[in-house]
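Journal club prep — side note

Before the paper discussion, L.F. wants everyone to see what a predicted structure for a comparable chain looks like in token form. Sequence:
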Amino acid sequence: MGFADRHEELPTYRWRQAPAGFATRRQLRDMGLRPGGQEPVARIECRSGKRFAWLYRIDRAAPKIPMTLAKEAALDRAMAARQTCPVCRRRYFFALPLRTLGSCLECHDGTPADPATYTQPAGGHRLAA
């Protein structure tokens, strides 16, 4: 029996009613911790049961793995792929709808781009409009 089969058996607490010693992923992150491979031990429901979050034991949590320069560079490359238009090659401050449009909104509908919405490439080179 896997976790998906037994998640209904886990204790469920209402919003702000969880006992001490349990925390959500976000709460663990704020404490500098991560679940560390442990499965959730309970869940907390909010919005009349429409939303829920898994709860983990704080005493079993592991310290967060620190960000290295290599990880930061890899994350920047991944974000650049989501933020760079393949048509005009501009990098924006937000992820582009590449799956649906295939380009930035300006290239898709032909309107000129607002320079305040995209970043300048490294090295100070300006892109031709």
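L.F.'s comment for the group: The chain has a mean pLDDT of 84. Keep this in mind when we get to the figures.
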